[in-house]
Amino acid sequence: MPADFSRYVNLTVHDKDAGQLYRQMIELARLVMPEFNLRRGTLEDAIFQSAAFIGATATNSINRLPDGLMQGIVSLMGYERTQGTRATATASVVLYGTTGEIIPVGTEFRYRYVNSVSGTQTDYLFVVSEDAVIVDAATPTGTINLICSQFGEIPEPTLNATTLTPLSVDTEINTVTFTSFTNGINPLTDQEYIDSAKTYLESISTTYVTAKQLESAVLANFPYVARCKVYDLTNAGVPNASYAPDRGVITFTPDTSKNVVQGNYKGSVSIFVYGHAGALSTSQLSDIQSFCAERTMAGLDIGVYNFQIASFESSGGIQVSATIDASYDTSVTESTIKASIADFLSPQYFPYGELSVASPRLRESTIISRLSGTVPGLLYVNSVQFTPPSPLAYSVVSDGQSGDVKITVSSTSTLELGQRVRLDDVSGTAYESASIAVKSIVSPTRFTIETNYSSTLATSSLYPYFYETSAGTVLNFLNRGVLPSVPTSAITVTLTTESM
Predict the structure, then answer these.
(1) How many angstroms separate the CA atoms of 339 and 333, rounded?
(2) Which of 217, 477, 481, 227 is CA-nearest to residue 349?
(3) Nearest CA among 99, 98, 113 for reference residue 165
(4) Is 127 in a helix, a strand, or coil?
(5) Can you tell me the distance from the alpha carbon of 63 to that of 46, in angstroms, rounded to the nearest whole number?
(6) Whole-angstrom Cα distance, residue 475 to residue 115?
(7) First vs last Cα of the chain: how many Å apart?
């Protein structure tokens, strides 16, 4: 059924001004007391006028409640009212004499429009939006950027003909001529707003078609889910006859003949979740998968998985060098820095913005920004170094000449189906090829990986989480669906003091 909000919009027809209410109050009083005669300047007249003013104010405020409530509800549904834009323009400026000049931001110019039919004149104010430098020349000439002071459309000037008048008297400006013009957009009227909002609301259905809709639905309907991230065109674990699952980050997919091409996963959606107390159970993952599958378009393969947790080197996994105010206690500041980093790089609070599809990563600049806003007494951060965890040792069960290699790791591993890893060859150099993914899990210590090698793969080391194999200012995740976790014991802080 179409939504009809017309009764709740633009109720100004019911507004009453104080004069109307005053006269109605007198008429009502005479119905009760026909002999009632209100004389101006009396106490009764003052009471009537005060009551009429208060009543008019209350009436007009109440009449605007439905408008505000409906606009708020529509905003919560994702539709924002267009406030309009202002016209912008560029203009050519010619100065008197031969000396250049700086035309600063805020310099005002008048554009006068003359109606060719009625002859009426309308003035529009334009201001300079950024400083303009005009250099010395025989005829100093430059260009200024202008923006109109009012929102909405205005009459368009004739380019290279219509002139503007400077409103400052202490200027060496000779002529100002429009060279380009982009008109503004009018704000929506009440009726236009309700029509467009109605169309928007009618377009909303119970079928989720975007990753953001799925994320919001999972978080809203499953209280035990604390974090949720949805990746389109990603098969992180659903068996496929043509292409093995792959969680790899797009940045590290140079080999288009392997299973890492997004085009191979049209119709595949992967949902990663994390609970308030850790990983979700198999039954909880199944419930989420069923819920989403019932509410998405037919033909989509939806997989729901727990986020993987990426650790760091247990000692010195994160190394921070910083300078603090000498008046602050060093040990307290060190503890604050460790707590701030551990809280930030945790599964519960790691920012969604760092989980982008193309390049999820840990960056020195992000940690510096975090510390600058959370650590009292911190003057500046000298450096931040990340050290990935020690690699897993593995041995080869069968060689990689056919592309698939069976390996056995030295201890029980949390490797997941489709997870990308990096391998070291016998000389210790990490292979640059990113076409290395877990194709099948034989046991907690034995895996089949898909490689791009044409020669026998040697026994060596395996890096499960990050592309980098040594300490640095950036760590790039090899896979999507990974959250970092670092205890305070893995953070090393070196502080120097400086008197202010």
Answers:
(1) 10
(2) 227
(3) 113
(4) strand
(5) 26
(6) 64
(7) 68
Under 8 Å between Cβ of 374 and 343:
no
Q: Please name the residue that has the structure tokens 């004499």.
A: 97
- Fold agreement (86-182, 392-464): yes
User: Taking 60 as the threshold, does the pLDDT of residue 399 lie above it?
Assistant: no
pLDDT digit string, tens, across residues 43-100:
888 998 888 888 888 877 776 666 677 777 777 777 777 788 899 999 999 999 888 8
pTM (predicted TM-score): 0.58
**CA-to-CA distance for 439 and 133, rounded, in angstroms?**
62
Maximum Cα–Cα distance for the chain, whole Å? 114
241, two tokens: 């006859």
Let me know: does 80 contact 131? Beta carbons within 8 Å. no
CA 263 to mean position of chain CA atoms? 26
CA distance 168 to 274: 62
**CB-CB contact of 417 with 438 (8 Å):** yes
- In a 10 Å sphere around its CB, with 0-12 CB exposed, 13-18 middle and 19+ buried, how is residue 55 labelled? middle
Residue 313: CB atoms within 10 Å: 16
Domain boundaries, the chain: 6-76, 86-182, 211-306, 318-388+486-498, 392-464
Q: The domain 392-464: what is its CATH number?
A: 2.40.30
Query: For residues 14, 16, 20 and 21, what is the CA-based torsion angle, rounded to 10 degrees?
Result: 110
What value does the mean pLDDT take over residues 165-178? 85
- For 48, the token pair is 């009537």
Distance of alpha carbon 396 from alpha carbon 417, whole angstroms: 18
The architecture that CATH gives domain 86-182 is Beta Barrel (2.40)
Q: In the prediction, which pLDDT does 218 show?
A: 85
The C-alpha atoms of residue 231 and residue 245 are separated, in whole angstroms, by 13
